[in-house]
Structures are given as structure tokens and as C-alpha cells.
Amino acid sequence: MADPVLIKKYANRRLYDTQKSKYVTLAELKDFIKTGSMVKVIDVNTEEDVTAFILTQIVLEEAKQKNALLPEPLLHLIICYGDNVLSDFFEKYLQQVINNYLYQKSMFDEQFSKMLDLGIDISGMAQKTMKDMSPLKPFMDFFDQSKDKT
Fold it and tell me: What are the φ/ψ torsions at residue 16 (nearest 5 degrees)?
């Protein structure tokens, strides 16, 4: 993956994209990240890395529009235990859990799509061939022939 794009955060809360040499909004930054790009946000005054803060701000803005981010019980746990218990979980496992979920979901979607495609082909072939494949067909044909003879 390419190096993250450097974004400078100014005191007036403006964000400056050093790659495109222009100011960007949180929404533009969100769209940029959704394309798979990585960013690194540095506070111009303190030279502190504030990437996590800006990304959290983007998530919270998204949640505000949808009026939900995480289930309330989980939010209570985060507030209750804060850095003590949950930060370890978030750092070590949450990203891995989400990545595994996304991978499994894409594999399931792909397999389901293949099954649907295969099922459509099989049903067409089955209609053509199954009518002559009945194990009782020769037996039934014998009775059909005997009716014709009488």
C-alpha cells in the first residue's frame, strides 16, 4: 500500500491536503478514504499526529447523520471501562474481527452468486433431461404400448 497522504490541520480546523495543494472538508476526506487511500493528519502548531482524532470526527459526523453509530450497551461499556479494558481489545482484535467479517461476507456473497448461476443452468438442463430419466419410464411405457394394442 502507498504511503499515506499528509493532511495538515490548522488551528481554524481547516484541513490542507498537501498532495493536491488544497483545503479539504471532512466529507471530502471521508470520500478519499473510502477509495482505499490512507491519510496522516498532523497538527501544524504542535506537529502532533492527530489522525485518530480526525478519523473519529469523520465517524461521529457519519453517525450524527444516521443517528446511530454503535449499540447503546457497547457505548456504555466503552465509557465505563475506557482505556482500561477496551483499548487493548480495540488495538489487538477489533480490526482483525472486522477484516475477517468482511472477508467471510465477500466469500459468502461470491459463493452464493456462483450457486445461483449454477442453479439456473442446472434447472434448464434438468427440465430437458429429467423427463426421460425416470426409472419407471420403461415400465410405464410398457402399459402405454399395451393400451395401444387393444
Answer: -115, 120
